[in-house]
Amino acid sequence: MQNEGEGFYNLSSPAFPQQGDIFPNVPLISPPPSPNLIILRNTDGTPWNPQPGPLVASSEKLLNAFDDGPEYIAASAERGYGIVLTQTCDLEGQDLWLAGQLRDLTGTKVDRGNLMTGKYANLFGLPPHPLDHFGESCVDLTRVFPVARECLPLKNRVASLALSAQMSLTDKVSQSLTRPWGYAPNETVLVSGRYRCFRCFMFDGLNNDVITLSAGGKFPECADCAKIKKHAQWRLLLKHQKY
Amino acid sequence: MRAPANAVRLVYSRVERTATPGSDSPVAYAVSAVVPSAGWIAVDASRVLENPFEAVKHEYSIANRPLIPREEDSMQPVVGSAGERYEGPRGKLLTLRTKR
């Protein structure tokens, strides 16, 4: 029986790094959710010059931190499987690559079918690795980590994506970080003007009417989109000009 | 502290540091452990705002935050006129169009 991951992954080890490459032991460093950082200093309070030895950890509030330059801080870090999200053509010239973390589907409310058919705007599904490096996983493309390229040596790569999977990832990255938006029905109109439904403007055979709305009113449904049970995405029309 | 039911585990790997240098073959590595499931809690950042020593704990790391799927379209299962949803090698499609 064929493993479903075999057509998804390219196990031929391409000679160069690519978007979608998967590495183990990727360092994932989280900025702490506090406006005050933990500053690491020498025991005499002077700025730390990285070397083995004891340190003092202090709240940023108690020091004149960052007055004379950068500081060393404490942060939570872990290692796990990561997938390269930086565009392939940018990898060569970048010191920092963007990586997403592989997360286990177990215990989540993520619907496997919708995930694998690309129905989530922010999640990219990965079938199990054919050689059992990891199981069925997903990546939240809105949570990305900067990783120094030296931490992702090609010799450690465990998988690359097949071309079709690379294209799916490219689409999903674009979709999750830059998807267009419009005002939904029943939202309050903030700016008077002429609006068009952005959801259906690209389709042939529709009126895609321009409507005039006044501030304080409510956005309506789009007649065309309602026919296919979708909600409108209204966008304010601007003067046709270069931007 | 026990993990909540909706806790999400990071896919961990501890690769043998003695893996064959220079090899790009997955078989050169051995996964020696997969992670702990206990000790992970959902983030409650509001109570750690003023305490950097609390905030820096692993429980509040990005990796520990639960996955929140953003729905692009209706996620409701659809049984169209064609009957049951098509199920392919990567999962079920939401609809199967049989005529133009």
Compressed to H and E, one letter per element, the order of chain A equals EEEEEEHEEHEEEEHEEHE
Shape of chain A: extended
Largest sheet of chain A: 4 strands, antiparallel
Residue share in helices of chain A? 10-25%
Radius of gyration of chain B: 22 Å
Share of helix among residues of chain B?
under 10%
Q: What would you call the structural class of chain B?
A: little secondary structure
Alpha-beta content class of chain A: alpha+beta
Please report which band the strand proportion of chain A falls in: under 5%, 5-15%, 15-25%, 25-35%, 35-45% or over 45%: 25-35%
Characterize the quaternary organization of these chains. heterodimer
Shape of chain B: flat
Q: So how many helices of chain A?
A: 4
Instruction: State the distance separating the first and last CA atoms of chain A.
Output: 54 Å
Radius of gyration of chain A: 24 Å
Give the tally of β-strands of chain A.
15
What order do the helices and strands come in, and which of them pair?
The complex is a heterodimer of chains A (243) and B (100).
Chain A lengths: L8 E2 L11 E9 L7 E4 L14 E4 L12 E2 L2 E9 L3 H4 L4 E6 L1 E2 L7 H5 L6 E4 L10 E4 L4 E4 L11 E2 L1 H16 L14 E5 L12 E4 L9 H5 L6 E3 L7
Chain B lengths: L51 H4 L31 E2 L2 E2 L8
Antiparallel strand pairs in B: 1-2
Question: Care to describe what's here?
Answer:
- The complex is a heterodimer of chains A (243) and B (100).
- Chain A is of the alpha+beta class.
- Chain A has helices at 88-91, 112-116, 163-178, 223-227; strands at residues 9-10, 22-30, 38-41, 56-59, 72-73, 76-84, 96-101, 103-104, 123-126, 137-140, 145-148, 160-161, 193-197, 210-213, 234-236.
- Chain A has a 4-stranded antiparallel sheet, with no helix packed on it.
- The radius of gyration of chain A is 24 Å and the shape is extended.
- Chain B is mostly loops and 100 residues long.
- Helices cover 4% and strands 4% of the residues of chain B.
- Chain B has a two-stranded antiparallel ribbon.
- The N and C termini of chain B lie far apart (56 Å).
- Mean pLDDT of chain B is 55; it is low at 1-10, 12-40 and 74-79.
- Chains A and B meet through strand 2, strand 6, strand 8, helix 2 and strand 10 of A and helix 1, strand 1 and strand 2 of B.
